[in-house]
Amino acid sequence: MIKGILHLVPTSETLAHETAKFIQQRIKNILQHKKRCSISLSGGNTPRKLYQVLASEPYLSDIPWSRVDFFWGDERCVAPDLPDSDYRMAKEAMLDIITSHWHPGIYRIEAEYPPTEAARRYEKTLREYFGDSSSAFDILLLGMGEDGHTASLFPFTQALKETERWVVENYVSKLQAWRITLTAHFLNLAATTMILVSGANKKEVFSLIQSPNASPEAFPILLIQPKNGELHWFVDEDAFSGNASG
Ligand code: 6PG
């Protein structure tokens, strides 16, 4: 039984459109009582189509993107113009189009710096933006890997234990690579968290995380428990298994 609200959609295509509609509605609601809306993007393949939809009509013209600030939940330790970069994926799929019409804030993780420095710099950026407010992102997009990781919070890695810092460098031995990731402690301050799960390759892990024995160390997605915010799962039929929501 996963916690949160389940949005079960037929296909990956409808997942992109349903999440775009949901984000549109949330941004417009938020901007009715706030000057700006902060949204944290996730990397990987799942959100690419969503980003392309958000950069197309009606969303391109309808959402006042100049009042939106983009952040990232994690980043690979590569330069921003390399294929592995989460920033580059979002730039190519969405931001290049949006910024040709609007002037949003873009706060990328400068993962070209050495890992510890990159994490320190992004934490400074976040603390300057959010201050010591008890809430953080208005909207947080997350994915889930086949191993149950989210952002770059991978199973049994050091980052899972962090309770003070908002951003950490995290060595992922199975990838033999450093990652920069926001910590569960900070991610859980988001007002609206959206976890996007798509594809038959996620069916097994989506089933496993519903087991009462599933541990957050083994399945870090289970660390995502918004402190005061809403948790929404957007799952397509290929990935869905078992019963959910509650
Ligand atoms: C990343 C993401 C990561 C991603 C999952 C799922 O940098 O890769 O932040 O957490 O969301 O790995 O990736 P897919 O959407 O490609 O399955």
Walkthrough of the structure:
The chain has 246 residues and is an alpha/beta fold. The chain has 7 helices and 10 strands. Residues 42-46, 73-74, 86, 143-145, 149-151 line the site of 6-phosphogluconic acid.
Helices and strands in order:
Blueprint: E1 5-9, H1 12-33, E2 37-41, H2 46-54, H3 59-62, E3 68-72, E4 74-76, H4 86-98, E5 105-106, H5 115-130, E6 139-143, E7 167-172, E8 177-182, H6 184-187, E9 192-197, H7 203-208, E10 230-236
Parallel strand pairs: 1-10, 2-3, 2-6, 3-5, 6-9, 9-10
Antiparallel strand pairs: 4-8, 7-8
Helix pairs in contact: 1-2, 2-4
Summarize the model shown.
By secondary structure, the protein is α/β, with parallel strands linked by helices.
List keywords for this structure.
alpha/beta; three-stranded antiparallel β-sheet; 10 strands; seven-stranded parallel β-sheet; 7 helices; binds 6-phosphogluconic acid
